[in-house]
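User: My instructor asked us to take a sequence, write out its structure as tokens, and then describe one feature of it. I'm not sure where to start. Here is the sequence I was given:
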Amino acid sequence: MTLSFIIPLYNCEAYVADCLNGIYGSEVDERDFEVIIVNDGSKDNGPMVCQAFANEHSNLHLISQENQGASAARNAGLNVAKGEFVWFVDADDKLVPHFFIKMVDVMKHDSTTELFCFNHYRVFKDRTDTCIDYAEEKTIDGIQFYSGNASGFLWNKIYRRELISSTRFLAGTKNLEDAYFNLKVIPKAINIRCLTDIGYYYNNTNQASTSKDQSLRNLVKLNQDSLTIHWAIAKDIAQCNDKQRASIYKEMLNKSIAGHLYSLMRFYSPGYLRRNINKYRTAGFYPVPKTSHQRTNKFLLLANRKTLFVLFTRLYKLLT
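Assistant: Let's start with the prediction itself. The structure tokens for your sequence are:
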């Protein structure tokens, strides 16, 4: 079998039929792929929608588990996947059918590529933007991938399952889990094909998604996941004997902490920001070292001055 789709499902009744129609509407031979949907304790009728598709398509496998988060759901899918390649798709998104058709043929005749990367559409209520992460077709390795402006998403990549091997998502996390998974997997790759094709529709209209949910409960969880992932990367750095990979880990850690500080400034209280800075300082991660990204470094000129940064955040809250 050429390809395994792995789709976590949680309260996506309104979107999952479009997602599956995008796959099956391509009319790719169903012997060439399987669709693994992991129902992560959905409370709506999404699983019933999927079961209806399963009744019509023998290559669709619906797995159900108690709610454990997308990371655990993807792990469950990986544990049973049989395809030579894996494509992680979100239940509220869609793939581009003609790209799927093309890639099945490409994968059948490509014995060396370990990872395919491609571009995507970002769908808003009033428009659809074209997002170009890969402006030229080229073959690179995992170290070169991270020397550029690496895209940390899962869904704009197709992974050879052998590259993933026994690597799994950090269970229980739903923030930065994709970037961390990629950080564990991609640096090992020798052959990565960057394609200029647009292969995916990312849905930016689902207000119930993790990235859109601004409830206190979700914000607390996102913050805790950021700390969990950052501590995990730090542990990987300490255990890594490869200088190039360790350098990639350090760069990613510094960029990600900077991103976390920016989110704390925008969405959390000044007191919450201060407490997290103290945690980073105690761990030796603050002040945050310079990165290769100029815009990030400009932000760090402020963020690395704790008293000024907290004061700025107070003013920001008053003015917004």
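For the description part of your assignment, you could build on this observation: The chain has a mean pLDDT of 95. Try explaining in your own words what that tells you about the chain.
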